[in-house]
Amino acid sequence: MTDYNVLLYYYFTWIDTPEVFAEEHRKLCSSLGLLGRILVSHEGINGTVSGRQESCKEYIEVVRSDKRFSNIEFKIDRVENHVFQKLSVRVKRELVTFRADDAVPSHVNGKGHIQRKRGQYVEPTDFLTLLESGEAIVIDGRTDYEYDLGHFRGALRPPVSSFREFPEWIRQELSKYKTRKIVTYCTGGIRCEKLTSFMIAEGFTDVYQLHGGIVTYGSDEAARGSLWDGRCYVFDERISIEINRAGNKRIVGKCYHCSAPTERYVNCANLDCHRQHLVCADCEERMQRSCSAECISARRRESLVG
Ligand SMILES: [Zn+2]
Ligand SMILES: [Zn+2]
Question: Are 220 and 246 in contact (CB under 8 A)?
Answer without folding.
Answer: no
